[in-house]
Give the backbone structure.
Amino acid sequence: MELNTLTAISPIDGRYYRQAGQLSEYFSEYALIRARVLVEVEYFIALCEWPLPELKGVDASLFPKLRGIYTDFSVEDARHVKEIEKTTNHDVKAVEYFLKEKWDALQLSEYKEFIHFGLTSQDINNTATPWLLRSFHQKVWEPAFAELSDALLERAESWKEVPMLAKTHGQPASPTVLGKEFYVFYERLQAQKKLLDQIPFCGKFGGATGNFNAHHVAYPDLDWVAFGNRFLSEKLGLQRLQTTTQIEHYDHLAAYLEGVKRINTVLLDMDRDIWMYVSMEYFRQQVKAGEVGSSAMPHKVNPIDFENSEGNICIANALLEGIAAKLPVSRLQRDLTDSTVTRNLGVPLAHTIIAFSYLKKGLGKLLLNEEALDRDLEKNWVVVSEAIQTILRREKYPQPYEALKALTRGKTHITKEVIHEFIDTLQVSDAVKAELKRITPQNYTGVACKMVK
């Protein structure tokens, strides 16, 4: 069966390809092969610039042509590498042989044994993969996060004057403002983003067991550690891990995945809260002509964007947690389990981007229903009891908490009239009674609106 968006096993490559297709540039087999080519080419150029004595004859004017091998790298090139791999049964060696063909075409045959000089496969994989991840983070994740954050902040600011009944334990609680409750999520996201920004993108580069054995035996007078540090920093934009086995220890990568997971968890919490607000009729949703909410019930307008976002986050976080737990563990100087796991990095990150997309879409469809918010506040005058007993404490009134508890706890019909009749019975000044009667569920919101910065 031909592979396309209808026949793909994964919904990432099928139903959700419109939202996630851009990730092919970073997490597909083609992308990984291209990144390996980039690392190998830049490594050769770095050896020329070091310079190694045997590479002094390489004309620097050829460097743009060498870089063109990866900047112009095509799907057909990737297919050719895979054809070579059928013989080598080794993916990185296939890249090396592919590049040797290119060197022959550029009349660089005498220098082609310096391709992959002194390296092991993981020097390529453990630089190509973080280079791709960093590129994804900067070009896809950060813009998507910024768009979602901006949309959230815009709504927080728009609704910062809208009073809302709070719910703690699902029960009526001291009122708040709608915008502040959205701003809670915005602030949480920014805090987690700040932590995520502190995690460096790292790579392993040091030969078969991390000691530059082959490099040192061939050129014992050269400082290969300094070369490796400079190569990763200047050519690849990565931080070189100084002491490793054959592979990267993945601690920083695991921290990155856990950071993304924490941000996703904040968004999942928001998905569920907004779902509840829609259920409580605090929001209606924009209706698009032709859309159907239920195959049986014509009236339905479901909060499906928030449900889709939540579902994708659940998949993403399960995989992020699993990958973060697995990658830092490897037997002795290495086993191969990291190889198949790192090939799946794009799966949870794709579900993350899909979740971002649906949540942003859902936010854009929300229509505020102030009537419903006000109705809930009016039905729950009981919540001003906290305010009354606090002012009575200030006035040194005897046992104010107990008095309000006796009036309100477990009662279902506490109205404005009941509250005001109670106030009239209090042995306090008329000024204090007037102060108490000015308190309403709509204005008893503290400094909530000022919290939206």
Summary: Confidence is low (pLDDT under 50) at residues 294-300.
